[in-house]
Structure formats: C-alpha cells, structure tokens
Predict the structure of Asparagine--tRNA ligase.
Amino acid sequence: KRSKVAALLAATELNQEVLVKGWVRTKRGNKFVSFIALNDGSTINNIQLVADAEKFSEESLREVTTGACIAATGILVASQGKGQTVEIQVNTVEVLGAADPEKYPLQKKGHSLEFLREIAHLRPRTNTFGAVLRMRHAMAFAVHQFFNDHGFYYVHTPIITGSDAEGAGQMFRVTTLDPLNPPKTETGEVNYTDDFFGKQTNLTVSGQLEGEVTAMALGQIYTFGPTFRAENSNTTRHLAEFWMIEPEMAFADLTDNMDLAEEFLKFLVMYALNNCKDDLQFLNDMYDKELLNRLNFVVQNDFQRLEYTEAVEILKSAKQKFEFPVEWGTDLQSEHERYLVEKHFKKPVILINYPKHIKAFYMKQNEDGKTVRAMDVLFPGIGEIIGGSQREESYDKLAQRIQEMGIHEEELWWYLELRKYGTAPHAGFGLGFERLMLFVTGMGNIRDVIPFPRFPKSAEF
Ligand code: ATP
Ligand code: MG
Ligand code: MG
Ligand code: MG
C-alpha cells in the first residue's frame, strides 16, 4: 500500500520500507547519484528520492523526467539535505506514465497565471493550484463544520428553478424546446406549455427563497451549492458559475445576521490559519507578503459596523477621485467598498440599511420608508464578500413591494404564502465561496481559485 508524502514527511519511524506514487517535479544529479523530487498532491512539499548510480543506470531513469508519473519503493531515512528531514533511498522505480520532456507544458521555470488558465487540465499539478485546491477543500469542510456546530441543517435547494429570484437579466435559460424554433402562442410569445416544466425555467441565481421555505420549518438552515449568473462583465471577482453559502435563520433580526456573518468569517479564516499552514506559507511567500498578516488581523479585530448613509458621507468627503461619484441612493461599486475598507477604516466593514430602490424586493423595510434592512460585508482586496438582509415578514408589505417593482406575483405565490401561514421574523445572507477563496489565498483573480472557471469566452472545457 502506498504511503502519502505528507505522512512520510511527518514520520518519526525511520528506516522502514515504503512505497510512494506521484508525479516527478524535478530530477537532478551527477554520475554517482540522482535526486528526484516527487509530489503526490497530499502536501505542497515534495519528498526527495535518492537513486544511487550503482543501482540505477542513466538509461534506467531515462523516462523519469519532469511530469512523469512513477511508483517507487525504498527505505525512508533521515536526510542531510537542506529543508527536509527525511528522504527515500530508492530500491525500485516503475514509470507508470512517461511525459515527453520536450513537450510537457509545465516547465521548471514557472508560468504566468494567464498561461495556466489555458491549460486547466494540467494546472492542478503546479504548487499554486495544489495549494488553492487543498485550501478549497479545507474551507468547504469548515463551512459544514461551523454550521453543524451551530445547529444549522444543510438543505439542498434546486438548481433548475422556475423562480426568477432577483436575477433580472442574469439568468441562464433551461429549456427542452428547440431554441432556434420554439413553439409560439397566438400573440407570438414563446409557448412553454410543451417544455419539460411547462413554463420558463432557469439555472438558479440563489437558493435563498427556497432556503426561507425550509428555515420556516427547521429554524436554522444553510445551503451550499453552485449558482449561475450570466454576468456579462469581465471582472476579477465575477464568475458565471460560482458556489454560494446561504444560511437562513428564523427568529432573527439584522443584528443577529451581522453577528453570524462576523463569527462565521472569522471561524473560516481561523480554520485556514490552523489547517493550511504549508499552503498559506507558500502563497504568502510567492504572491503576497501581507497575506498572513491580513488573515491574522481579520480574526483578531472587530469589523466596523456602519449605516449606508454614513458611508456615503465618508465617500463624498474623501480626497480620492472615484470613477463613479457617489450620492445618497447610488449603488456602491467595488472602488467605493474598497476605499471604506482599505483606506478609511482599515478593517472589514459591515454596511447596513441601504436605500430600498437599489436592493431586492424581499428585504424588510425600515420605518423611514426609504431604506431596507440590507447588510453587505466588505473585505480588503475584494469589496463585497457577503450580501444579506432581514427579510420582509409582513404579507401586505411584501405584496405591495412586489407590485411596485413590477414582479409577476403569480410566480411568487408560494413565497407570499409563507407570510400568510405562520410568518416569523427571519434573516440570512449569501457568502460567495470564491470571494472567500480570494481572501484566504491572496490570489488576485477569481478565475484562479476555482478548478474550472466559467466566464464569457472561457476555455473550451
Ligand atoms: P456584486 O455586487 O459583487 O456583483 P451582488 O450584490 O450581485 O455582488 P449578491 O446577489 O448579493 O451579489 O450575492 C451574494 C454573494 O455572492 C456576493 O456577496 C458575492 O460574494 C457572491 N457573488 C455574487 N455574484 C457573484 C459572481 N458573479 N461570481 C462570484 N461570486 C459572486
Ligand atoms: Mg452582481
Ligand atoms: Mg452588490
Ligand atoms: Mg449583494
């Protein structure tokens, strides 16, 4: 049975026979000995294989080149080499899959992130993407741990849905009709009667509305699944397919929501610091010397909580020139969000009570008639990482808002009925998983924190 490199590097029992399998990172040597650095994905660190020339002729190691997949047996021994405590004195080497060194796209010199995006099938074999993917796993695991520990149930909301939620214009249509020649009604509109669902359906833009359904029965729930938005923007923080974590709590108000968001984010960052040490150290040294400082700062300091109206005042009197000037009523852009976080408060910010006309129909209206109990959490380097709100629990107010905004009430009859039968105050939020990944890895582009990014004109698979 093979041992994982992570376990071998931490082993205390030496001089035992071991079997390792993995991909060759480098091979170097002289006429007495060859050194092979092997990685198997279990850690960012390689294990060194030492092959004596007495046992291994140059010819026998000819196919052991960068990129090749090999299996090796040998004795785990203490190492004199710099930066490692153990190595393997090799007895046998078997090449499982050779990689033509002339053609293998991942060369030792390192590649730009842009180039690596074009070879999404090989980039997981780089140190950077190994680190990102292991951290993605750790963060997903931490999400479930947090909610399980806090008594939230994990529910699965649908991916194909008939509800438009709030995704005006951003939805991917799902249909079994011939898109080039759909059946038409007498008035010339697409007739969905023959479609699989008998009506227009989309890929979900958020699991929130269905999440509210289950929160109104189970009390505290969360969803964690893929969401889809036909974002036509080519930004470093938007994808067309991303993962979202959406908790929903019955019997909760905006303050409970802020408290949960802050505790949750701190827990996740702390989890990364405690469980991803080697990967974080690598990313810190390689890309962003402030990464570890920033992560430590976030877990140790309270977030700044602030009214939207106060934020607008700060932005209006800022010395910095913004591309889009701000007035009360403006939807904040990432340049404004980042100014508040990075320049003004120098800490994460939770902004609340936004103007109602820039927010979704389901948010609870404040007494002032102008604002709603919205909440955005803003992070350094990113801007909005969480969007949430206390929800409108009054049937009449919700129905009125739906009408005002020109939304088809028939589509939301079930959502309205939640307010008709046993309504309760409730609140929740959505955390974009890839925005979290941007923060904890320090990567600069959202396309580099998901294995197969989907964006306009993305790579072929
Ligand atoms: P933004 O203002 O950045 O476009 P949003 O306000 O449209 O975000 P929400 O509808 O509030 O986003 O969604 C909740 C969270 O989902 C956001 O706070 C963000 O973390 C994440 N998110 C939204 N859109 C995207 C996207 N296209 N790609 C990745 N993450 C996203
Ligand atoms: Mg958006
Ligand atoms: Mg926003
Ligand atoms: Mg938002």
In short: The chain has a mean pLDDT of 95. The longest helix spans residues 127-149. The radius of gyration is 27 Å.
